[in-house]
Design a protein that fits this description.
CATH class of chain A: Alpha Beta
CATH topology of chain A: TIM Barrel
Order of helices and strands of chain A: HHHHEHEEHHHEHHHEHEEEHEHEHEH
Strand content of chain A: 5-15%
Number of domains of chain A: 1
Largest interface: A-B, 36 and 36 residues
Largest sheet of chain A: 7 strands, parallel
Oligomer: homodimer
Structural class of chain A: alpha/beta
Mean pLDDT of chain A: 96
Shape of chain A: globular
């Protein structure tokens, strides 16, 4: 397969020279776009969007038609994997994801098996292939999955949670059961990301949304260790090109050094840490992706430009920065503010990429 | 006023020698105790518990009757202050606090005034005095308030929030209005804590529950700066005794160094950071309070003992550690597990306090 005509993202993730700082946004295909809402209305619900490759392709491409973004990201959901394990995913409007059969009993956990992505997640792989064809090598396509611990949170809680009571109870009372879930998840996710890569994902990202709710020893034992298991099993190049891997841990900036040593190419960081300070801490080990507060996109254009400039200056001169938000874009964001941000990043970043 | 017979907490907060590590628990008077639920049922609702000094005294003392805790903490709520400003606090069962009149319009914000605690928060001061009499100098009484930014979150959102959309919109669109709210709050809270100290609080704690949702520059400008304004205005001794001040910032471990330099005596830290690492970062500037994951109290006694031992060992030899949870105790905690924790801290900590 040919390299995308705009390979700025792939180069930045590998810490290679680029002319400017590439930018994409977590959840860039989403509810802040009227065209997304129109497609979703046609599809009927969110899960149908994910499971139908035509719809998934359509919404993946929508933000690229509007904004000069440097990457596409597969439209899907991290919970497709536990759904493929038979937990029965559905979405309740305004309340988020729910599993019909959360993991509570020991026999349910012992019965858990890693699904074959070619069989049980075929629709995702078909979407990856179809999006690649539709992209026609314009920009790279990012594939993704949730982290083993993050999926375990949803699988054990049965949905979103504020206190993670069930999963933490298992962590402290029956760590053997939790580790079994995490191991099955890690094997499932390794196969899943490798399949996405085989079907055309040119970079992949692991979303560790909930690793940050753990104590430091529990984070290392229950989240990072299983991310490392995935990293060790991933196909890191395809058709002669490196496939960079990004690890994003919301609320995880206490452990940046350990994340940088885990074997990924880039770290996503949320907006609570200064990017320059994060760069000092990880050194030359990894690229960094982030880290504008999504709420800054509510501000006036000149404030968005100022905030983008502040983050670019904080990272400073040199390569290895991918501009992004520190979390998914809010559904209440005015779409025209995204254009302001993309233009600001592209323009303001050139000064940091001049030849020495 | 005389010094409490057990002044271990006060000494630890001032980094003075103690025989063991003192322990108390955030929200130690709460729904995990059947006797608390009985009093609350008699009172009718949560706010009546706070507003009636007899009830507040009764529930403040309940955990001390059960466990060998080293401190009492005033039973109250951080939102009594915006309630005293006229925002109309009420609690919706299962949904948390709500304000009838959240701050949305510029004129509402410009009209905001710092309440006189002697007039508008008299019931809190009466509770402080009554609890002190009931404690009879057994252990010290901790007073508290929310941080200016944390209160602003509730005042502007109108209640709890997951995305802090309204307050962040104001931060980026109308920072002048947000800073006005923060300044009024800081003045109100300074007077409020000073009044608590005058009526008998022997240490005070500032709860910055939501500072951790901000970007690093916004945290410094909107949260820490106004905490510093309070710290600069507090009466730091009463009747010849120092009144230590604890600052707790949930999710705030990115900024420990700045917090330690802000002028408080001790920092509360949540469970996501290793206490030993936190101690390295703050050096000899402040004492540290924390940091067991509240969910660890669901575990079997031997696991609770192991986790307590791990945290004590992480802080290591020497003074200046107050054992606590990293957040409020869960309502689902078995009360007998609290006894296990208190005993474990008292026993296991003695080895770290031996004379050199």
């Amino acid at each position: 397969m040919t390299r995308p005509r705009n390979d700025t993202l792939l180069r930045a993730l590998m810490r290679q020279p680029t002319d400017y700082t590439p930018v994409w946004l977590m959840r860039q295909a989403g509810r802040y776009l009227p065209e997304y809402n129109a497609t979703r209305a046609r599809a009927g619900d969110f899960l149908t969007l994910c499971k139908n490759p035509d719809f998934a392709t359509e919404v993946t491409l929508q933000p690229l038609a509007r904004f000069g973004l440097d990457a596409a990201i597969l439209f899907s959901d991290i919970l497709t994997v536990p759904d493929a394990m038979g937990l029965g995913l559905h979405f309740v409007d305004g309340e988020g994801p729910r599993f019909e059969r959360p993991l509570r009993e020991e026999w349910e956990i012992r019965d858990l098996e890693a699904p074959d992505p070619e069989v049980h997640l075929r629709y995702v792989l078909d979407a990856v292939a179809q999006i690649r064809r539709a992209l026609d090598n314009q920009v790279p396509l990012i594939g993704f999955c949730g982290s083993p611990f993050t999926l375990a949170c949803y699988m054990i809680e049965g949905g979103s949670s504020h206190d993670f009571l069930h999963v933490k109870r298992m962590l402290y009372e029956r760590p053997d059961l939790l580790h079994h879930v995490l191991d099955v998840n890690a094997r499932a996710l390794t196969a899943y990301l490798n399949a996405q890569i085989a079907y055309g994902a040119q970079a992949v990202m692991i979303f560790d949304t909930w690793g940050g709710v753990l104590s430091s020893p529990a984070y290392h034992a229950c989240s990072l260790a299983y991310v490392q298991q995935i990293l060790a099993g991933l196909t890191r190049s395809h058709d002669g090109h490196a496939v960079p891997v990004i690890l994003f841990t919301k609320g995880g900036s206490n452990w940046l050094e350990a994340q940088a040593a885990a074997g990924c190419d880039a770290l996503g960081v949320d907006w609570t840490i200064d990017l320059g300070r994060a760069r000092e801490r990880v050194g030359a080990k990894v690229a960094l992706q982030g880290n504008l507060d999504p709420a800054a996109l509510f501000a006036a254009p000149e404030v968005i430009e100022r905030e983008a400039g502040r983050i670019l200056a904080s990272f400073g001169a040199g390569h290895g920065h991918v501009f992004n938000l520190g979390h998914g874009i809010s559904q209440h964001t005015p779409p025209e503010h995204v254009q302001v941000l993309v233009d600001a990043v592209h323009t303001l970043s050139r000064q940091y990429h001049l030849a020495p």
